[in-house]
Amino acid sequence: MPHLPVIVVGGGQAGLATSWLLRREQIDHVVLEAGTAAHEWADTRWDTFTLVTPNWHCRLPGYAYEGPDPDGFMTRDEVVAWLAGYVASFDPPLREHTRVTALRQRAEGGFELETVCDGIAETWTADQVVVATGGYHLPIVPPWAAGLDDAVTQLHSAQYRNPEQLPEGAVLVVGSGQSGAQIAEDLHLAGRAVHLAVGDAPRVARFHRGRDCMTWLAEMGLYDTPVHQYPGGVAAREKTNHYVTGRDGGRDIDLRQFALEGMRLYGLVDGGRGSQLAFRPTLRAALDHADAVYTSINRDIDRWLAAQGIDAPPAEEYRPVWEPEEEPLSLDLAEAGISTVIWAIGYRPDYRFVEVGVFDGGGRPTHSRGVSGVAGLYFLGLPWLHTWGSGRFHGIARDAEHLVERIVEQRAALRRPHIGAALLAGELSA
């Protein structure tokens, strides 16, 4: 039974960042990855995918984007290559194709992990464990979707690759977050007839006052502000990301403009059966809300520029180019010639393998900046783990640094008998 001071579960960017820092601290460890390192970037992104954050945001411990276009947006394949370069840069102790099927506390202290690799089961033990499997695990598809007409192809956004993979006919995209809005755009630009069920996601300008909005926001400190300092506190973790695109050098996504060009827009889907779908009358409110957030962010930037005395090009005020004449409440898929429905309504967390009581009623880990209530158990790579930047390249290094500091402290405590005994007894937390 192999034993290590630290085991990292997950070989994506969060797990790799942790490994780099553990190696710097000369802490023996292993990274257990169910697939291959950072495989989800290739496995769950469509062909024309690009980052929505500028390339200069891409930085991990000991490694940063050094390409020719820091203000550009890497494509899916460029991100995959960049992460492969990270792995090659320090050769982490990585065990690929090794799925963790159970993680438990040991009575004598530390943790036990059961794994499967090529059908062979193995048990590992560790003093401390970092769960770095991210926050997007199970694609969400509404249960009633099984009752839709069998003639309609259904897939989740994680399965979408390009318009050519879909059968001929119109496409309904459900959800207007980052994935839904960009997939709808991809299909629209390819000349497909697109119907889009619009959710409550906000939007953001790609550029404002001469620079990328996300560069301004970074300089304003928005990506460094702890979650508890935002209005609503930790409730910010449930917010949907703003839709925008890095495609073709970056631009706004304006659903009103798409509607002007022929895309059919609807409110929230309210159920369906056979070829019939029902919608809530929320379209106008959703468009207005997205635009209000867009304008609010621009005004925040304007105020900050004025306060800093920064001279920048004048602002351009957004004016809506289209308004819905009515709120469509129903849709006959067959009558509209819709052959495909793409569900872009997110993911549910799946930590069933973690058999430790550190979760809330929704199955999400409870933690303080990634440190759980069980000594030696940590979570990394979650959206809003500590800041807005936590779920993206921009903030992972800082979050990983914090957790590795806690790991080092825990190791030191375990070497002091009176503190180690208290930790094992659950009387102290990390």
From TrEMBL:
Alphabetical keyword list: Oxidoreductase
Keyword match Lyase: no
Stated name of the protein: MSMEG_0569 family flavin-dependent oxidoreductase
Record flagged with keyword DNA repair: no
